[in-house]
Task: structure prediction
Amino acid sequence: MEVHYLTPEGKKELEKKLNHYKTVERPNVVKRIGIAREFGDLSENSEYDAAKDEQAQIEAEIAEMENILLNAVIIDKKSIDSNVVSVGTKVKLYDEDFDEEVEYRISGSSESDPKNGIISNLSPVGKALIGHKKGEVVSVHTPGGVVKYKIIDIKI
Result:
């Protein structure tokens, strides 16, 4: 069983998206399949093929969202220890190579948004930071090489 960490807000957002797929996207593609069937010979019907492909993709996304919700662990900010980097914490780091400070929020993979500083606990940086404390220097093995970060602060 794969655990998926979600914030309460992330869970609501995912439930909303799942509901949209089930009540809007799925019925729309079923309609398109029905219309495409009316065009006749299905063996040469590109509209039918495209709609069936879209249906398969929608069903796969629905299944993935349901799996995430089924195996979700909701992050309770009250139970997070701000002395240790964990899912749900915000970490201020000093990047020794670039002589700059960076800040990341550690989240579950389904809520990560690296462009906005939200990284997954499964990412190279997230994995390396988990369990470390303020003041520690952490080496992160990235595709571009080893990067060293000093943990300056941990917040909830």
